[in-house]
Specification:
By secondary structure, the chain is mainly beta. The protein has two helices and twelve strands. It has a single domain, classed as Pnp Oxidase, Chain A, CATH 2.30.110.10.
Length: about 150
Amino acid sequence: MGNYPTGVTVVTTVNEQSVPLGLTVNSFASVSLDPLLILWSIDKRVSSYEEFIKTDKFAVHVLASDQSDICSLFASKGVDRFGNCEWKLSEHSLPIIAGASGVMQCKTYKTIEAGDHTILIGEVIDIISEKKEPLLYHRRKFGGIPENFYI
């Protein structure tokens, strides 16, 4: 699976006490255009698993090529993730991390059990898009799109 290049996302939500939660995710895909649906999956062993499964909304951040530090931050354990990055609550009361290439705010549409993960399908209710190159992950390394890619 490490030989398959992917984009890198951070998924955020708030728990019942309005505390922001977030984690790095590379299992992200488009599902449908009508309605506009996306999916991502969460490992059942993640400490915030129950809170993400219970939430009725979440935001998926497509990280920009200069955000490998954000990727590492939200993949780390035992750190104050939101205390170490710039973010704000959106009009949908979701934590939005500054500088992302794009953000899709979603309401939870469906969850599907799949082995040691659960797939969360979200209906996109708002999109924030910036003109930034995405962060890519391939063979355990991060990078942007090569300069000669568009030739």
